[in-house]
Amino acid sequence: MLFLCISDIHGHADALAAVLATAERRGFGRLLVAGDLCFPGPAPLETWRRLVSVNATCVQGLGDRALATVDPDGLNARSDFERDRLKRLRETRNELGELILARLAKLPTSMRIPIEGARHLQLVHGSPSDPFEPLTHELDDEEIAVLLGDDPADIVVCGGSHVPFDRTVGRTRVINVGSVGEAPDGCYAHATFIETSASGIAVEQIAVPLARPLAASGG
Fold this sequence. Notes:
Elements: E1 2-6, H1 13-26, E2 30-33, H2 44-53, E3 57-58, H3 62-69, H4 80-106, E4 110-115, E5 119-124, H5 141-148, E6 155-158, E7 165-169, E8 172-176, E9 188-197, E10 200-209
Parallel strand pairs: 1-2, 2-3, 5-6, 6-8
Antiparallel strand pairs: 1-9, 4-5, 7-8, 9-10
Helix pairs in contact: 1-2, 3-4
């Protein structure tokens, strides 16, 4: 099976479209998305509709949970940034509507997917021990092992940090797929191809150039 794995779209539908256009030229069997789908970027509804149209398998990120559960009218902003973020939260919730918000609320925070060779791939936004605590490239192996928990899958696919990496810790291959919508310099979008077979896995991490740089939104 050839998986296309992405994360942290943050409502940037144009960046998602660029990744999918690149991936579709190669072909893939299943799209896995490690959370933070629609907020705070400019096109949350278009992003959601595109993911639905390609039958993406998604888990919940911190932004998805905030969209689905936080009432912005019940919060008091303490800075201009917080005021802007609450305004964008209201706008995004209104654009998505109650039905989609309910679907975001029901997304699992983690998902185990059987793969060839009697192994499993775990899709999570942050880490197996805490779905909202990211596995980052700056952590050492001991710190990553703690976040992997007691029963990690053979492959852990995650996002959250916006910086991709591929490391093996113990018996688990940890693949952070970076960010589609909030890569550090805003000029490209990250994606990872994972091909699984009975004999093993092959991983290719790519950066897709974007026609227009994306403004960072601190998601």
